[in-house]
């Protein structure tokens, strides 16, 4: 169907159908109506049947079917046109996508080239491209800074001429023959001002698509700082080697249970050659009794558990002789792992001297104890002799004089003989009392007869009577059986010395004496409210000045301690303390 005749093709069937319907109605009205007369129902049925069987087929075949065929052809045409348009659109879109992809790829390629150019411009290496003959084609900014020449000044110049390499370097690396397979090495380069500097050169060929060499790319790295650092490291290593190898102490590195390094002095101390380091077991070098302590200390140090850095132990010389050493360790990183840097010093002679000093002190302590014991024994003997011999003799003389006066009836007489004999009696009595006082001062009989508590009470009463201007306060909080027998004499002597010192130097008005138990310790405290003194200032010793020394010796004789606290204007306090054993000391 031609596109220019759609309207005419539709009008003809329409007019034909209208004519058929009109003729049919005329035939019904002219021919059949007279037959049926007023039978309108029959006429309606006939009219309807005529329309159904005559008009509808005519409408279908003459109007509807051509129209449907026309619409179908139109739809097919539009669908074919649409399909053609879609194909054309798809082809156009594919073409656009290909063009766009080519544009993007070209843009990326241009951006990549520009990015690479920017990288080469700012890279911290001198980058130079040359032709196959060595003529410079590209010279980046860092090359300008390194050599002092601009890209315009070096263009069409040979690289060997501009950079001033030696003939050998130019022949091996820059001539093109040695660089075909690539070349690297250290060379001396020359700047524009004539100064030379070491560089690390890398040369790589640029290949064409056909496999031929188009040119070369060179990179230069200034290694002046690295060379200076290498020199400094060599100097440092030489200094380190000089210090470590000539150190008077043994130095070693301990890691993973074995020695990794040791200096010459270490091998001298253990008496072994340096060649045995690899097979040397540290446990064989330390005394068997000290190795568990050293091993545990090193283990804690390596684990970061805060073990002591310093220690003393015995090491074994190759001859079997034990040697005392003082060690110190420090944590270091060695070979990427935690290790111990050890330092040991031979202290055998010092240890022997200290042991001799300790033995001497112990001997002196024992001698002092024996002297004190002998002194107490001698005092006790002298006191007993005074009391039993002279005291009794004087008492007997006094008794004989008094008896003679009674027998001769001279008690109330006024004769010269009576007066003389009566005058002798008080002298003899005073002598007896003086002997008793001296005997009690040397060794109170109450200490042996009645015990320490009674002796302290007697001594403080006598002290109060002798020094009435000083008030004595006594605080006894222990029983007699709680004080070991061997401590009683020393406690009394310390009390006696402390109170005598207070009476001489303190200018105190009150003295406090305390004897008590504190947390299982027996404590004697003698304090005063006197002028005091500065314990840190040296004091001039008078009459030998052994009072404080004797008190300290007596306190330490049975494992006790003596503490003296004082301050100017704040009085003085003497504290002696002993740890009481579970079983009484006898």
Task: Lay out the secondary structure.
Layout: H1 6-36, H2 40-122, E1 126-131, E2 136-139, H3 141-147, H4 151-154, H5 159-163, H6 167-174, E3 183-190, E4 196-207, E5 213-222, H7 224-245, E6 250-255, E7 258-262, H8 264-270, H9 282-285, H10 291-302, E8 310-316, E9 322-334, E10 337-346, H11 348-407, H12 416-442, H13 445-449, H14 452-466, E11 471-476, H15 485-506, E12 510-518, E13 521-528, H16 547-556, E14 561-566, E15 572-579
Parallel strand pairs: 11-12
Antiparallel strand pairs: 1-2, 1-5, 3-4, 4-5, 6-7, 6-10, 8-9, 9-10, 12-13, 13-15, 14-15
Defining key terms:
16 helices, 586 residues, Beta-Lactamase, five-stranded antiparallel beta sheet, alpha+beta, 5 domains
Brief summary of the model shown:
The chain has 586 residues and is an alpha+beta fold. 55% of the residues lie in helices and 20% in strands.
Structure write-up:
With about 575 residues, this protein is of the alpha+beta class. The chain folds into five domains: about 5-100; about 125-230, 2-Layer Sandwich (Beta-Lactamase), CATH 3.30.450.20; about 245-345, PAS domain (Beta-Lactamase, 2-Layer Sandwich); about 345-445; about 450-585, Histidine kinase-like ATPase, C-terminal domain (Heat Shock Protein 90, 2-Layer Sandwich), CATH 3.30.565. About 55% of the residues lie in helices and about 20% in strands. The chain is built from 16 helices and 15 strands. A five-stranded antiparallel beta sheet has the order 2-1-5-4-3. A five-stranded antiparallel beta sheet has the order 7-6-10-9-8. Helix 1 packs antiparallel against helix 2 (about 40-120). The chain is elongated and about 220 Å long.
């Amino acid at each position: 169907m031609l596109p220019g005749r759609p309207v005419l093709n539709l009008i003809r069937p329409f007019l034909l159908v209208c004519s058929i319907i009109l003729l049919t109605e005329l035939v019904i009205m002219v021919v059949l109506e007279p037959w049926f007369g007023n039978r309108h129902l029959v006429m309606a049925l006939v009219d309807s049947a005529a329309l159904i069987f005559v008009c509808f087929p005519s409408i279908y075949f003459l109007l509807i079917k051509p129209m449907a065929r026309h619409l179908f052809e139109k739809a097919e045409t539009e669908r074919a046109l649409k399909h053609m348009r879609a194909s054309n659109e798809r082809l156009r879109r594919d073409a656009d996508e290909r063009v766009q992809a080519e544009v993007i790829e070209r843009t990326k390629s241009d951006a990549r080239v520009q990015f690479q150019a920017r990288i080469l411009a700012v890279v911290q290496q001198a980058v130079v491209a040359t032709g196959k003959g060595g003529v410079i084609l590209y010279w980046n900014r860092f090359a300008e800074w390194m050599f002092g020449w601009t890209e315009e000044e070096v263009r069409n110049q040979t690289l060997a001429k501009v950079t001033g390499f030696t003939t050998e370097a130019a022949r091996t690396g820059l001539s093109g023959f040695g660089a075909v397979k690539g070349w690297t090495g250290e060379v001396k380069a020359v700047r524009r001002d004539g100064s030379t500097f070491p560089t690390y050169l890398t040369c790589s060929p640029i290949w064409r698509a056909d496999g031929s060499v188009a040119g070369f790319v060179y990179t230069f790295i200034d290694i002046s700082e690295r060379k200076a650092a290498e020199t400094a490291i060599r100097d440092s290593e030489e200094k380190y080697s000089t210090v470590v190898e000539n150190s008077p102490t043994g130095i070693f590195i301990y890691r993973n249970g074995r020695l990794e390094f040791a200096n010459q002095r270490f091998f001298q101390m253990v008496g072994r050659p340096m060649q045995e380091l690899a097979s040397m077991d540290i446990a064989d070098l330390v005394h068997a009794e000290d190795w568990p302590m050293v091993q545990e200390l090193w283990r804690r140090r390596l684990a970061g558990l805060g073990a002591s850095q310093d220690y003393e132990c015995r090491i074994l010389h190759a001859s079997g002789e034990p040697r005392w050493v003082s060690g110190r360790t420090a944590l270091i990183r060695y070979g990427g792992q935690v290790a111990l840097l050890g330092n040991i010093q031979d202290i055998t002679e010092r240890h022997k001297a200290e042991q001799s000093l300790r033995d001497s002190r112990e001997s002196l302590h024992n001698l002092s104890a024996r002297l004190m014991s002998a002194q107490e024994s001698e005092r006790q003997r002298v006191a007993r002799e005074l009391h039993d011999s002279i005291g009794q003799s004087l008492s007997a003389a006094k008794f004989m004089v008094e008896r003679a006066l009674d027998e001769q009836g001279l008690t109330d007489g006024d004769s010269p003989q009576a007066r003389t004999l009566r005058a002798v009696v008080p002298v003899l009595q005073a002598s007896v009392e003086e002997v008793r006082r001296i005997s009690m001062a040397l060794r109170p009989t109450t200490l042996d007869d009645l015990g320490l508590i009674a002796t302290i009470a007697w001594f403080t009463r006598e002290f109060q009577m002798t020094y009435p201007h000083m008030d004595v306060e006594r605080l006894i909080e222990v029983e007699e059986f709680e004080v070991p027998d061997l401590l009683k004499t020393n406690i009394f002597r310390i009390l006696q010395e402390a109170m005598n010192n207070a009476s001489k130097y303190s200018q105190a008005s009150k003295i406090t004496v305390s004897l008590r138990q504190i947390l299982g310790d027996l404590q004697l405290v003698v304090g005063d409210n006197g002028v005091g003194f500065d314990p840190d200032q040296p004091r001039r010793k008078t009459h030998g000045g052994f009072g404080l020394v004797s008190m300290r010796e007596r306190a330490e004789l049975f494992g006790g301690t003596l503490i003296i606290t004082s301050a100017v204007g704040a009085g003085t306090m003497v504290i002696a303390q002993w740890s009481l054993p579970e079983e009484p000391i006898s």
